[in-house]
Amino acid sequence: MSPRRADPQLAARRREALIRAGYAEILEKGIHATTLDSVVARAGSSKGGALHYFPTKEDLLYAVFEWLLRQLNRTLDDVVRAQPTPRGRLVAELEVLFHSAEVNRKLYLMLFDLVALSTRSERYRSLLARFLESCRQRDIAIIEDGVKQQQFRRVRPEDAAVTIRGLVDGYCLQWLIGANDSPIEVYRDRCRAVLGAYLLR
Question: What CATH number labels 57-199?
Fold first, then answer.
């Protein structure tokens, strides 16, 4: 009798189900209250199966954040590629980053958890740094193209990319922890106005 062969597609689906369950648990409870047992229960998996993919909670957390950043990067790449002009690409990117109150609250709560982990762990710091670098390169390409097409004034693309990231994260942070009930669209429009004054000819 020959041994059963592992099904890589089934394994990938089971692993992703655990990652998605981990994501839901972290959103609901935060990283400290999330446990392997709670993730296993949410995924409808077995503890042994979960430990096969993620021997520790740390391994699961890393996989969740890696998955989240990959999803966000893919979304940003897709919306940017779909626009024919540099200005349209930047507008589309801002629409994703200020998508809706519900989506942004979830995203930034996760990102703040990741930032906290990154201050104490080189593994998480490297993961976040890679994501930020991909954002920087995407924005540099948009700005370079916009300057070349004379849609943007002549600015250093590297400086503009850092400015975009600082404005987006800063406005989202202010919105998330602000005491007032201003909708996220107010912060999006402020961000657009500042970038318009900085970039537009």
Answer: 1.10.357.10
